[in-house]
């Protein structure tokens, strides 16, 4: 019996592997993508980066301005994430099967989460750009809307996974709906929710660079400005500061997760 199961599993894995190969080949053929030519271009690309993306003294003179824009981007990402988390928690409570008030609220909550999550942040930036113009409000709202969708979905799953024992115990004592939510549901899922918020802060700091290019704000705007003027030394310095900031935030959030989980 075990041998038959192993053979079946091996056959399934083989077919899956062959399917991936066929799908990759078809995708390359449809898009006219050449693997060999791409590999041949790598040495030239590496040589160009080694000769152009070098930080010099002139670029270092721009460091104070770069840090100002980077700090602006980081705080905008944190603000968008934390404010979105508050709204997402409310929508998740309305949308979760454990805490759903009625089917209409639940459907609306899941619809909002699905709509905002399935439209990329870049698309939201372009949509909001038409309404609010090229300013920091547009960048903030683009990150905010995208975060609401992701966190609402994550919070719904977290609440759904919470143990129902304490919820049923409070119901048996005659506790009100909001007492059940505040004393049983939220405390159980809070560590996981905080972990999701920290994850989104990391993600939004990365996304904010691209959003800034489109909305003309933050470190993304500075990157775009120097890139278009072919000042690649400053571009290299901006890239390094972004990478270091993301790594620092990631290390900090990882440390916080270990403490709370």
Overall description:
- With 261 residues, the chain is mainly α.
- 86% of the residues lie in helices and 0% in strands.
- It has eleven helices and no strands.
- Helix 6 (121-132) packs across helix 9 (177-215).
- The longest helix is centred in the last third of the chain and has 39 residues, at 177-215.
**What is Rg?**
24 Å
Average pLDDT value? 84
Strand content: under 5%
Largest sheet: none
Q: Shape, please?
A: globular
Low-confidence stretches: none
> How large is the count of helical segments?
11
Instruction: Tell me the total number of β-strands.
Output: 0
Summing up helix and strand content along with how strands pair, one would put the structural category as mainly alpha
The SSE order reads: HHHHHHHHHHH
Helix content: over 70%
Distance between the termini: 40 Å
Structure in a nutshell:
The protein is 86% helix and 0% strand. The protein is an all-alpha fold and 261 residues long.
Topology:
Blueprint: H1 2-30, H2 35-52, H3 57-60, H4 63-95, H5 103-118, H6 121-132, H7 136-160, H8 165-172, H9 177-215, H10 218-228, H11 232-260
Helix pairs in contact: 4-5, 4-7, 4-9, 4-10, 4-11, 5-7, 6-7, 6-9, 7-9, 8-9, 9-10, 9-11, 10-11
List its salient traits.
261 residues, mainly alpha, globular, 11 helices
